[in-house]
From TrEMBL:
<keyword id="KW-0378">Hydrolase</keyword>
<dbReference type="Pfam" id="PF13487">
    <property type="entry name" value="HD_5"/>
</dbReference>
<dbReference type="GO" id="GO:0071111">
    <property type="term" value="F:cyclic-guanylate-specific phosphodiesterase activity"/>
</dbReference>
<feature type="domain" description="HD-GYP">
    <location>
        <begin position="140"/>
        <end position="336"/>
    </location>
</feature>
<protein>
    <submittedName>
        <fullName>Cyclic di-GMP phosphodiesterase response regulator RpfG</fullName>
        <ecNumber>3.1.4.52</ecNumber>
    </submittedName>
</protein>
<dbReference type="Pfam" id="PF11871">
    <property type="entry name" value="DUF3391"/>
</dbReference>
<dbReference type="InterPro" id="IPR003607">
    <property type="entry name" value="HD/PDEase_dom"/>
</dbReference>
<dbReference type="InterPro" id="IPR037522">
    <property type="entry name" value="HD_GYP_dom"/>
</dbReference>
<dbReference type="InterPro" id="IPR021812">
    <property type="entry name" value="DUF3391"/>
</dbReference>
C-alpha cells in the first residue's frame, strides 16, 4: 500500500494502538519500514517496545477510523529524511562493492591453495612471501567489514572440500582473531597458517579421504598421517612464521594430551593453536560433503561445547560462538512471515537481529523480489535456520 510522508505524524510508542498505520520507527535514528502497514495486534506493539523503539511515525489517512493521534515535536524530520534518502541507497551499493572484493579475495585464495598443493605434488619450494599480498587483502577486508567476506566464504562446493576447507579456515581464523582484538601483524600468520593447515592431506589416499562411511581403525591412522606428511612440506615454505607452522601442526592437538601428532597438553598448546583446533572442528562440522550434509551452526556449537574442557578451550569456544553468532553471515533462515533469506550483515548491538536478504516465500512456494529486512527495525523475527537442500531451492544466485 502506498503512503505519503506528508500524512505521517510522529508519536510516542506509548500512544501507539491497534489499527494505526506505521510507516517508520525510531530507536536512535529514524528508519523507514519496507513492510509498512497497520498494527494488527497488541503483540506487534509489544515487539516494538521490547526492541527499544521509542517513537513511530503513523499515516493518519491510512490508519483505522477512530484512532486518536498525539503528535510529539519532530524538528529533526526534514534532516532525518534528507540523511535517510542520501545514505540508504549507498548502504547496499557499498556492500555490493565489498561483496565483489570479497569474491576476488576468496577466488585468489583458492588459486593460492591450489598452487601450494601443486607445488607439494611436484616437490617444489614455495615462498611464504607469495601469500603476503593476499593475506593483507584478507585482513583489510575483515577489518573494514567482515560481513561480505563471511557471506562469500559460506558459499562452497562439495567436490572441492580440501580447497574450500583451507580457505574457510583461513577466513574464520582472521575473523576470530579480529574479534579477539588482534592487530594486523598478528592476523597475517593466522591467515597464512589457515590456508596451509591441511597441506599434508595431499599425500592421503583419496579413497580414504572421500570415504562415504565410517573409517576403519587403519584408515583413521592413515588420515592422521597428514600431520606427519605436513612437516617436511612446510619446511620447504621459505619465510613461514612460527605461528603459521603451529597452526599447521597443532590443529588436531587436544588439551588433555590425547590429540596428534605430538600429544601436546594444556599450556603446551598456545592460543593460536587452540584457535585453530576450534575453527577446524567448526568448519568440518558445518560443511556439506559428498557423503553428508553439514550441520547448522547451532548444532555444531552444541557438539563443540561437549568437547570442552578436555579437547577444546572452553573460554575460547564461548568467544568463538559470540564471534560467529547463532545465525552467522551467509546462513539461510526463515522469518516469522514465511520468507526465506540469507543473513546478509550483522548488527553488533543486536546479534540476534541481523539484516536478512529475503528472496523466497515458503507460504507461496515461489521466489520473490529481493528485499533487505533489518530485523533490528522490523516486527519480523528469525524462526529457524533452514537447509536449502532440504527446502529444495537453489540459493547460489542470491549470494
Amino acid at each position: 500500500m502506498q503512503f505519503d510522508l506528508k500524512d505521517s505524524v510522529k508519536i510516542s510508542i506509548d500512544t501507539l494502538v491497534v489499527g494505526m498505520f506505521v510507516t517508520s520507527i525510531q530507536k536512535s535514528e529514524r528508519v523507514y519500514l519496507s513492510n509498512a502497514g497497520r498494527v494488527s495486534s497488541k503483540k506487534g506493539i509489544d515487539t516494538l517496545v521490547n526492541k527499544g523503539i521509542q517513537y513511530v511515525w503513523v499515516d493518519k489517512k491510512l490508519s483505522a477510523k477512530g484512532c486518536e493521534f498525539h503528535p510529539v515535536p519532530d524538528d529533526e524530520t526534514a534532516e532525518i529524511q534528507q540523511n535517510s534518502n542520501k545514505n540508504s541507497p549507498n548502504k547496499f551499493v557499498s556492500r555490493e562493492v565489498r561483496q565483489k572484493n570479497a569474491e576476488r579475495i576468496i577466488k585468489e585464495a583458492r588459486g593460492l591453495a591450489q598452487k601450494i598443493i601443486t607445488a607439494t605434488f611436484d616437490s617444489h619450494t614455495f615462498v611464504a612471501d607469495e601469500l603476503d599480498g593476499w593475506a593483507d587483502e584478507l585482513i583489510e577486508s575483515a577489518l573494514v567489514n567482515s560481513d561480505a567476506l563471511q557471506c562469500v566464504s559460506a558459499l562452497r562446493k562439495k567436490d572441492t572440500y580440501l580447497l574450500e576447507h583451507s580457505v574457510n579456515v583461513a577466513t574464520l581464523l582472521v575473523t576470530f582473531g579480529k574479534h579477539l582484538g588482534f592487530g594486523k601483524e598478528h592476523l597475517k600468520p593466522l591467515a597464512i597458517g589457515g590456508i596451509i593447515h591441511d597441506v599434508g592431506k595431499v599425500h592421503i589416499d583419496d579413497n580414504v579421504l572421500q570415504k562415504p562411511s565410517r573409517l576403519t581403525e587403519d584408515e583413521f591412522e592413515h588420515i592422521k598421517q597428514h600431520q606427519v606428511f605436513a612437516k617436511p612440506i612446510i619446511k620447504k615454505i621459505e619465510g613461514l612464521s612460527q605461528v603459521s607452522r603451529d597452526i599447521c601442526l597443532m590443529h588436531h592437538e587436544k588439551l588433555d594430551g590425547t590429540g596428534y601428532p605430538n600429544g601436546l597438553k594444556g599450556e603446551q598448546i598456545p592460543q593460536h593453536g587452540r584457535m585453530a583446533c576450534i575453527v577446524d572442528v567448526y568448519d568440518a562440522l558445518t560443511a556439506d560433503r559428498c557423503y553428508k550434509r553439514g550441520m547448522s551452526p547451532a548444532e555444531a556449537f552444541k557438539i563443540m561445547l561437549t568437547m570442552t574442557p578436555n579437547h577444546l578451550d572452553r573460554q575460547l569456544v564461548y568467544k568463538f560462538i559470540n564471534c560467529i553468532g547463532i545465525f552467522p553471515i551467509g546462513a539461510i533462515v526463515e522469518l516469522s512471515n514465511g520468507h526465506l533469506g540469507i543473513v546478509w550483515s550483522s548488527n553488533d548491538d543486536a546479534p540476534v537481529e541481523p539484516v536478512v536478504k529475503c528472496f523466497y516465500s515458503r507460504k507461496n512456494k515461489r521466489f520473490i523480489d529481493v528485499k533487505y529486512v533489518d530485523l533490528k527495525h522490523s516486527w519480523h523475527t528469525i524462526v529457524k535456520a533452514v537447509s536449502p537442500t532440504k527446502a529444495g531451492i537453489d540459493v547460489t544466485p542470491f549470494f
